[in-house]
Amino acid sequence: MDQNTISEGKTMAIISYITVIGLLIAFIVNSDKKNEFVKFHIGQSLRVWILAIALSIVLGIMAALMGIGFLRILQWAPWILAIMGAINANNGKAEKLPIIGSIGE
């Protein structure tokens, strides 16, 4: 990716990591511009928020049925990944996130 593409898409790439609403905003805004940098970060952000929803469901069930509430600390993992993605976007990097970055390719 060239520097101009990264510079133009940096803000939308960062916004994509700010909850699911930010992801939707970035997706809608980028649908006209087709910026590859933003597209990459939208994909990474989508993985983060799918993980967040899945963890919320699974850990909620485990806590309710098995009394394993201490595992709820794992619900912080998507937020940590989102922060890592936003930092990468701010620094102009298109690096995959650990563990989930390659899922679905």
Question: What descriptive keywords fit this protein?
Answer:
70% helix; mainly alpha; 105 residues; 4 helices; elongated
What does this structure look like?
Helix 1 (3-15) packs parallel to helix 3 (36-66), helix 1 (3-15) packs antiparallel against helix 4 and helix 3 (36-66) packs antiparallel against helix 4. It is built from four helices and no strands. It is elongated and about 50 Å long. Helix content is 70%, strand content 0%. By secondary structure, the protein is an all-alpha fold. It has helices at 3-15, 19-33, 36-66, 77-90.
Question: What is this structure's SSE topology?
Answer:
Layout: H1 3-15, H2 19-33, H3 36-66, H4 77-90
Over all CA atoms, what is the radius of gyration?
Answer: 15 Å
Q: Alpha-carbon distance between the termini?
A: 19 Å
Largest sheet: none
Segments where pLDDT lies below 50 for 5+ residues?
A: none
Overall mean pLDDT = 91
Tally of helical segments? 4
Share of residues in strands: under 5%
Order of helices and strands: HHHH
Sheet/helix structural class = mainly alpha
Overall shape: it is elongated
Number of strands: 0
Residue share in helix: 55-70%
